[in-house]
Amino acid sequence: MRLGVHVSIGKGLPAAAEHAGELGCECIQMFSSNPNSWKVKELDEGAAAAFREGIERLGIRPVALHTPYLLNLASSKNDTWTNSWENLAWALEKAAVIGADYTVTHIGSHGGDGFETGADRVKDGVARALDMASGSAMALLEAGSGGGNTIGWKFEELASILDRLGDYHERVGVCLDTAHLWGAGYDISTAAEVEKTFKDFDRLIGLSRLKVIHMNDTQKLLGSRADRHWHIGQGNIGTEGFKAIVNHPAFSDIAGILETPDMESGKDIENLNELKMLRL
Predict the structure, then answer these.
(1) Contact 91, 103 (CB under 8 A)
(2) Centroid of chain to Cα 13
């Protein structure tokens, strides 16, 4: 597994690449834009070129963008839904320009309208975004922990959404999050349970569609449907589970991205080194 962290773009794209190199990242994730706003800034071509040069020089791959938290591709509210797929399209376009491989997005909530209705909205929104965006960056649907009316948190639901997007198979993949998996009821605390969980994923979806795993421990209970990230080895998933994931033979070239708390206070490199030490 290639290991890295979610880095800030507050000081610009070139600085983000250099910071990732200083941390020893092998892959990275960044927000595509302000995570709490619909507004996007016009992309600086010079900064994009400098970023592409930086990640190539530093050997950082893959690179993933993460869309803002506001996106809800399952929403029945037309303004929210339209803003969501348009923002996803913009993020996919930006990914192509800066040399990113993936754009990760949360799937969203059906708001009480039921899974089938929400899944159809997700299909239509993602299809529109992919049709609008140029380039080859993949959209990765991130499975949640199951809170509220969110959809796609169980492998069966995620598979159903992906089946709807069959015509876009080559451009739609999956992002999992270890804290989300735990909250959703998937025990990944031991090597045996990790093997069982990912065998189920492979049977229902296919491991070839899994491109990014967010590596976060959690202090929440198994099956709590809560999404709270914690430091590696200090929560309920624990070291054995992460060791099994890091060394899983199917994950040798995919991205393991940390989203643990207090990233800017030095915890990012501590958690990254913790994961690296688990490699066999």
Answers:
(1) yes
(2) 19
